[in-house]
Amino acid sequence: MNNTEKEDGVCENKLCNNLDAQCSISSNSTQGTGSISANNNTDVISLCANCGKGEEESVKLKSCTACKLVKYCSRECQIAHRPQHKKECRKRAAELHDEKLFKQPPPKEDCPICFVQLPSLATGQRYKTCCGKVICSGCSYAPVYDDQGNEVDNRKCAFCRTGWPKSDEEEVQRLKKRMELDDPIAIFNQGGYYREGIRGFPQDYTKALELCHRAAELGHAASYCSIGCYFENGHGVEIDKKKARHYYELSAMGGDLTARYNLGNNEGRRGNTERALKHLMIAVRGGYAKSLEKIKELYSNGHATKEEYTTALRWSTLMRLKVLNGTKLLQHERIIVTINLLIRSNI
Ligand SMILES: [Zn+2]
Ligand SMILES: [Zn+2]
Ligand SMILES: [Zn+2]
Ligand SMILES: [Zn+2]
After folding, report:
1. What's the gap in Å between 268 CA and the centre of ligand 3?
2. Which residue ranges make up each domain of the chain?
3. Is the pTM value of this prediction over 0.70?
C-alpha cells in the first residue's frame, strides 16, 4: 500500500447516507470512462483510468486499493491520476469503511453445554483454563444434582469435569499451557495480569500491550478494545485518540460491544450524533445496557427520535429478559439434564 492510499484510506468521519449507491466513475473525471464499477466488474472492459490502456494490451491492471472504483496500468498512472481521483476515492473509501464498521458480525457460538447462544457481554460467560471452553454463566453456576436429586459438589468445570484450580499458581500454569496452544483468550488474560500486576506478575503495560496485540491478531476482538483503552488513557503509550478510535473500530467490527459503546460515546463527544446513535443502537441491541442511557441523552437533546428511543428501550428490555430467562430457567433445566447424563455415564 502506498502512502497516498494510506492517507486517503482513513475514515472521513462523515456518515454516508447512501451505502447502496452503485459506484461508477463520473463521465468527466477520467479518460477511462466506464472502466470499472465497484459492484459489477464482470460486464465492462477494464481500462486504465489515466491512460486508457486496456487489459487486452497484455497489461495487468491493478485496482485502487482504497476505493476499488478504478484500475491503473502502472504506479505512474495512478500518481498522475491522483488529483482528479482523490475526492471520489476518499468518498468511496469512507463509504466502504462505514459499510464494514456498522455491520455486526454473526452472533457468537453456542454454549457447549446448554447450546444456548453465548451472551455478547463478557459477564454472561466464563472462560475455562482447563479445557479452553467458554461456557455461559448460567451453566457455570448452575447447581448440579445426581440422579437421586441430591445436589453434588460442583467444584469442577461444567464442561470437562476437571476440578477448579486450587491456587492462583495452578490457574496460571493452566493458562500457560493454553497460551502454548495459541489460545487468544489465555493470551489476553495473561495480558490482564501484567496490566494489573496481579497473580505474581509485575505491572508491565508494555508486556500487557504486546500480549493484547498477539491475542487480537488471533481474532480476539476484545483485545483490540483493550488496545484502544491503552491509547485513550495513555497506559504505557502516548495518549493518541485517533489510534484509540482505530482500535475500537477493529474491535467493534469483530463484535465487541464495549468497543461499540466507546465509539458511540466518542462520536457523541465529537458532535457526530448521527454516528453516535448508530453505534449505540448496535450496542443496545447486543445487550449493552449502558448504551440505553446514552441514547436517552441523545433523545432528550433532540438527536434521536422518539421511535428510535422506544426501539432501544424494547431491545434493552428484551435482552434483559433473555439473560434472565436464559440463566435462571432454560439453561438451568438443560444443564441439570446434561450433567446428570454425564454423571450417569461416569465421564
Ligand atoms: Zn495507464
Ligand atoms: Zn481510489
Ligand atoms: Zn450454557
Ligand atoms: Zn474444562
Report:
1. 36
2. 3-101, 122-344
3. yes
